[in-house]
Design a protein that fits this description.
The chain has 321 residues and is of the alpha/beta class. It has 2 domains: 2-112 and 212-296, Periplasmic binding protein-like II (D-Maltodextrin-Binding Protein, domain 2, 3-Layer(aba) Sandwich); 115-205, D-Maltodextrin-Binding Protein, domain 2 (3-Layer(aba) Sandwich). Helix content is 40%, strand content 14%. The protein contains 13 helices and 9 strands. The protein has helices at 5-19, 48-55, 58-62, 74-82, 93-100, 143-154, 170-178, 191-197, 220-225, 227-245, 249-260, 264-267, 283-296; strands at residues 37-41, 66-70, 88-92, 105-110, 115-119, 136-137, 184-188, 201-205, 214-219. The strands form 2 sheets. The protein has a 5-stranded mixed β-sheet with strand order 2-1-3-9-4, with helices on both faces. Helix 2 packs across helix 10.
Length: 321
């Protein structure tokens, strides 16, 4: 138990940083024509270029205010979207497909990030072919469950041959892994790095599995009423990516520390995604998500696949905003 105390201390800091992600607008910037945008994010690295753009004053220079609200589970984020507490969000494609059925939204760009399949240090699970009858925590109907199915298929094991407790809260999945209450789960950074620092193992990542299913989506209402603001959001994102690309990670660790709440020494262990300029989501990945949801029974088989991508903000998959 003593060995876990530093980790849970980190979690307390991380959750505090996440909950304080919504900052007040800079009173020195005034632009009556532009509205604020409220973006729901998860405690993952997909949002880091947005964060860099805000902290380095890029959005201030563009005259638009971006407020972040951080959620620790897809369920909480989705509920905030449905009740219009947020204009848009970083969301996995399976979640976006399901939400779109009753709450119109559109994906405007893809995001770069990854999840690691972490096994507990106290577990005998060292290889993918040992997944049968193991306890693997998932967040149902999301990229976490999708990736778990892909891992099982890669290992030649039916997805029904292991136990799948529903643990949607990311910090809770980490703590259950630390206590040995589950054998494995997919975790994003910085949680994956926290877990590995404490002796847990990563067997594979979503990048290695060729899973790229995260993007930024906005409600139809926000797209109608805040088109200029969303355009500037994308422009700021690209400038944030340029900043990241032009600096060594050692110069970015303080920003990572501010964004995640973890110590700078631990931030230095994080492997940043290969961030690219904003591009449209790949429709084939959305189709994969839709077909998987039908196979799992989350969508009826007779439902036609729908186009979730708004192509008016980024004119092609290769163009930069």
């Amino acid at each position: 138990m003593k060995n876990l105390l530093p980790i849970f201390g980190l979690l307390t800091v991380l959750l505090s940083a996440c909950s304080n992600g919504k900052e007040k607008p800079d009173s020195s910037i005034s632009n009556e024509d532009l509205q604020s945008i409220t973006l729901g994010i998860m405690p993952t690295l997909e949002s880091f270029p947005f964060y860099v753009a805000k902290k380095k004053g890029i959005y201030d220079s563009l005259g638009v205010n971006i407020d972040f609200i951080c959620f620790n589970s897809a369920n909480d984020r989705n509920a905030a979207f449905v009740t219009e507490q947020i204009d848009g969000m970083i969301i996995d494609y399976p979640s976006a497909v399901q939400l779109q059925v009753h709450h119109p939204l559109a994906l405007i760009m893809k995001n770069d990030g990854y999840f690691c399949f972490i096994t507990g240090k106290g577990s005998a699970l060292n290889q993918l072919n040992q997944l049968e009858e193991k306890n693997i925590a998932v967040s149902r109907g999301t990229i976490i469950e999708y990736a778990t199915d892909v891992v099982c298929h890669k290992a030649g094991i039916s997805s029904y041959r292991n136990n799948r407790p529903e643990i949607s809260q990311i910090p809770l999945r980490l703590s259950m892994l630390q206590y040995g209450q589950i054998d494995a789960t997919f975790l994003p950074d910085p949680y994956a790095t926290i877990a590995m620092k404490d002796g847990n193992r990563s067997l594979i990542s979503t990048c290695e599995l060729d899973i790229y299913m995260t993007g930024t989506a906005f409600s139809d209402k926000a797209i109608r009423e805040k088109r200029r603001e969303i355009t500037l959001l994308i422009k700021g994102y690209n400038l944030g990516v340029s900043y990241i690309q032009s600096h060594p990670q050692s110069k970015l660790n303080s920003l990572l520390t501010e964004a995640t709440g973890i110590p700078e020494t631990l931030a230095g262990l994080i492997i940043l995604p290969s961030y690219t300029m904003a591009t449209r989501p790949d429709s084939s990945n959305i189709s994969k998500a839709q077909e998987w949801l039908k196979e799992k029974g989350y969508l009826p088989h007779y439902r036609q696949n729908t186009n979730l991508v708004d192509t008016t903000f980024i004119t092609s998959t290769n163009n930069k905003s």
